Amino acid sequence: MVALPLLIAFIYYGSEFQFVCLVFVLSLLGLDEFYRMALPGRRLDGMLATGAGALLPLAAFYLGPVGLLFTLTLLVLVFAILLLFRFNEIRQAATETALLCMGFFYVPLLLTHLSLLRGVPDGIQWIFLLLVIVMASDTAAYYVGSTLGRRKLYPAVSPNKSVEGALGGLAGAIAGAFISRATFFPGLTLLDCLAIPLLLGGLAQLGDLFESLLKRSCGVKDSGRIIPGHGGILDRLDSVLFAAPAAFYYAYLIFYQR
What pTM, to 2 d.p., does this model score? Predict the structure, then answer.
């Protein structure tokens, strides 16, 4: 309970660079969890890829979009060449290379959109809007699903999720957007308060399902143990990973272009 007020204060009072440093730390922790799950037999390669991949948000901050693309391209090439000469079992080489490179796209690239979002006009409000929508969606989906849930949403991936819970999550996301408009983001239009939560809320739920798919595929219950009783960083960020890019591109391509 203490962590949330501290996070709010950090986002509100911290500089853009400090926020990028937070995204760097989250990328570092998230990548480490991903490689522990996906490539447990290649810890050295996973550690190298974790340290290198976490630099993506810093590359975007200092070098801009072209620098981000350059760094991502360099990472894929370097680690593909590394595994070319360091494979253990040739039948597993393609899978291991794909998983190693996937980590760059899934964790730091998606998380970098948080720092990009912080850099747009009203960036702090956009970050808060994103968090409010995701948290409202998660909370509403849980309570509606646990009380009214009857039809399974995707039992092969997440047996406890229901269609009713998913719809409740979207309703909660819309409520979160209207609350945000009334409290700290008056620039949102009524259309924004419908379009943004439907987009972000839907993607947040898909991000949750995708991480569940990864964990089931890797045979683990939680992505990590960094948060006692709540799993790992990826368990907390799975919804944000999919929603953050959508929030940035909506702000950049639609909201500030009209």
Answer: 0.94
